[in-house]
Amino acid sequence: MADKKGNVSSSRKHTLKSCMLALAKDWLEAEALEKVKERERYMEENCPPLEMSHSKDDLMELCKKMYDKINVIDEERYNLEYKVIMVCNEVLDLNIKIVDLRGKFKKPALKKVRMSADAMLQALLGSKHKVTMDLRSNLKQVKKDEKKEDKELRDVGDWRKNIDDKAGMDGRKKMFQGDN
C-alpha cells in the first residue's frame, strides 16, 4: 500500500471501479425484479382473473364493470395531474418571489475602516485578551543626512545665467573640464 494518504495505484482503482459497477448492476437487477413482483401483486389485487362466460348478458355486465373502473381511475389520474400542476405553479411563484426579494435588498458596499493593530487583535481575540503590539518599537532609527551635491543641484540659481555660461565653445569646454 502507498505510504501517503490518498494515493491509490491504478490497478487498485480499476479493481474498485469494477467492484462498484458489479454491485450497481446487481442492485439494478434486484430493483427490476422487485418492480415486476410489485406489478404482479397490484394486478392480482385490483384485477381479478377473468372468467369468461358466453352469455351476452354476462359480457355486458363485465363491460359495465370495466367501464366504471376506467372512469374511477381516470378521475384519480385527473386529480393527481391537477395537484401536480398546482404544486409546480406554486414553486414557480415562490421562485419569482425569491428573485424579487433578492433584487430589493442590495448588499451595502463595505467601508474601509482604519484600525490599529491593537484594535484588530482585540476585535479578533475578544476583550479578555490584552495584547499590545507596538510595531514601531522594533523599527531602526535612521537619520536623514543631506548631501552637499543634492543641495547644490537644488540651488541652481537663475537658469538664464546657467545657459549663458554653457553657450558657445567655452561653455562646452568647461563642461568637459569640470569646475576648476
Q: What's the layout of helices and strands?
A:
Layout: H1 10-46, H2 56-104, H3 117-125, H4 148-154, H5 159-166, H6 168-177
GO molecular function: actin binding
Keywords: Actin-binding, Muscle protein
GO cellular component, one term: troponin complex
What does this protein structure show overall?
Belongs to the troponin I family. One of its GO terms (cellular component) is troponin complex. Pfam families: Troponin. This is Troponin I type 2a (skeletal, fast), tandem duplicate 2. The structure is a single chain. This protein is an all-alpha fold and 180 residues long. 67% of the residues lie in helices and 0% in strands.
Fraction of helical residues: 55-70%
What profile does the largest beta sheet have? none
Number of DSSP helical runs: 6
- In whole angstroms, the N-to-C terminal distance is 85 Å
Summarize model confidence as the mean pLDDT. Answer: 79
Strand content: under 5%
Low-pLDDT regions: none
Q: Write the element-wise H/E pattern from the N-terminal end onward.
A: HHHHHH
**Radius of gyration, whole Å:** 47 Å
Could you say which structural class the secondary elements and strand pairing correspond to? mainly alpha
Number of strands: 0
User: What gross morphology would you assign?
Assistant: elongated
GO molecular function: actin binding
Protein name: Troponin I type 2a (skeletal, fast), tandem duplicate 2
Function: Troponin I is the inhibitory subunit of troponin, the thin filament regulatory complex which confers calcium-sensitivity to striated muscle actomyosin ATPase activity.
Pfam family, one: Troponin
